[in-house]
Amino acid sequence: RKEVEQDPGPFNVPEGATVAFNCTYSNSASQSFFWYRQDCRKEPKLLMSVYSSGNEDGRFTAQLNRASQYISLLIRDSKLSDSATYLCVVTIHSGGYQKVTFGTGTKLQVIP
Amino acid sequence: GAVVSQHPSRVICKSGTSVKIECRSLDFQATTMFWYRQFPKQSLMLMATSNEGSKATYEQGVEKDKFLINHASLTLSTLTVTSAHPEDSSFYICSAVRDRGPYEQYFGPGTRLTVT
After folding, report:
1. Quick one: which of A19, B4, B91, B108 is 20 to 30 A from A47 by CA?
2. In this model, does residue B45 exceed pLDDT 90?
3. Is the pLDDT reported for residue A56 higher than 80?
4. How far is B100 from chain A (nearest CA, A)?
């Protein structure tokens, strides 16, 4: 089983739709969780950190479920500019060092 | 957001030569930096974890003698691709992690290496 798993997609959704991505992780010692977006031929950019209490940033909502070891990202009112690959990232910190694991990414295509 | 720079952004070199890529965190200290490689239409692949003041930790299958990493300060890590071959052509991306929580990782803009 992979340490971090994501549905690769692609998710093809019409503009204005709501879309949700899930990501599961296997290491219960994982401490920090993030969603990144990566556009084609560009570096990943931090979209949002994910907290146990859930957090929202505009049209984006992230949730963490430690008991079930998954995180989710909800995008409301999808825009064409949301088309990208969304990467789930899980981090463990120990003794000043960090182990970072990426999911393989979920591709989103928003269509007019 | 925090800024991480990489230099050069593009490089073309001949087979057998060495190429050095620099990664700098411009506005925060980073004990840990990461080096990734990404081939077209594939996901990021972690090559190594670079820790300031100690030896880098390489992922399985990554040759440490071919990909030399030096993390000389809290704001600079370098990756040297030695004796480059065409199969080393790829998009190399570094990232830096803040020393303090929430330990967000910020990526450099990447270096596109082409070995002819």
Report:
1. B91
2. no
3. yes
4. 10
